[in-house]
Amino acid sequence: MSDKPLPAGKMTNPQHIQVNLPELAEKVDQNVRPVVNEAQRFAAKTSVSGRRAVSRGTMFMALYLWLLSGAVILSLIARHTQFFPGDMQITTRLQKYRHRWIRRLFFGISEIGFPKFSIPITLGISGIFWALRFRLEALFILLTSTSNLLNALVKRLIKRPRPTRELVTVVRVINEPSFPSGHVMHYINFFGLLAYLLATNWRSGRLRNALITLCLVLIATVGPSRVYLGAHWPSDVVAGYLYGGLWFGGIMAFYLKAKAWLHPNKGQPPEVVQPLRQPGDENNNTGT
């Protein structure tokens, strides 16, 4: 390697870099902005009005809350017993299926619920909604992470031990209480809200219906996956669905109230919150 100094004209200088940065930013903007604009137009074209979303969402919420009951009683029982009727039998029967593809499937479904995947996924999906100008929805997607606070609180109060390797097959040892399942609560809130937003804010279509189906499949299968992997008892999973559902109902109620405020039947919301209104509703006063 030569130690010969570079000619003065070849040396890097900060001023030269500063001159090129605006050009680079302009090129990036020219290439990215058309894609973003097209995505925003597609989102606005396929979505329903904000008022219609409120109406549809209210009906979903009423049905969902009607299905939720028994969480407190279940918790009191879990505090004073190691097993619920059927815990051992259901776990043993489920773990008898030792096919490699079943194990990989349940492992994959469960794995995306751990923070190293769930945090980037949550931030990424929220960012997509924000870029599409569904900014209220983006904020509420971030709020689904608050279900972890409820999960941590209940676990500390109940202090139920997890399944052990002496009783069932345990794929990964987790040193924290078992009741209720944090994975199930997270999936109910994150994927549940995502499905809810897609169902109430967009018209029926292949992409929308496929995404909703994927969300519902993940919610339905995360519970069995946690039992299959020996991370939870079936009763922990049931409690996760109940507690997650209760928290989800609260998030939906808050979301509907905010949505109704942004899209009132008469008049316009305050100017300061206008950027949170969904695309296509700026001049929509028909409520259709």
Question: What is shown here, in short?
Answer:
The chain has helices spanning 14-46, 50-67, 71-79, 87-95, 100-111, 115-131, 135-143, 147-158, 182-201, 206-228, 234-262.
Features of this protein?
mainly alpha, 288 residues, 2 domains, single chain, 66% helix
Topology, please?
Elements: H1 14-46, H2 50-67, H3 71-79, H4 87-95, H5 100-111, H6 115-131, H7 135-143, H8 147-158, H9 182-201, H10 206-228, H11 234-262
Helix pairs in contact: 2-9, 2-11, 3-11, 5-10, 6-7, 7-11, 8-9, 9-10, 9-11, 10-11
* Overall shape: globular
Number of helices: 11
Structural domain tally: 2
Mean pLDDT: 80
Main sheet summary: none
**How would you classify the helix and strand content by structural class?**
mainly alpha
Strand content: under 5%
Terminal CA distance: 72 Å
Assembly state (oligomeric): single chain
Number-wise, the strands total 0
Radius of gyration: 25 Å
SSE order in H/E notation?
Answer: HHHHHHHHHHH
Helical residue percent band: 55-70%
What does this entry look like structurally?
The chain is 66% helix and 0% strand. The chain has 2 domains: 16-46, no CATH class; 49-266, no CATH class. The protein is built from 11 helices and no strands. The chain has 288 residues and is mainly α. The longest helix has 33 residues, at 14-46. It has helices spanning 14-46, 50-67, 71-79, 87-95, 100-111, 115-131, 135-143, 147-158, 182-201, 206-228, 234-262.
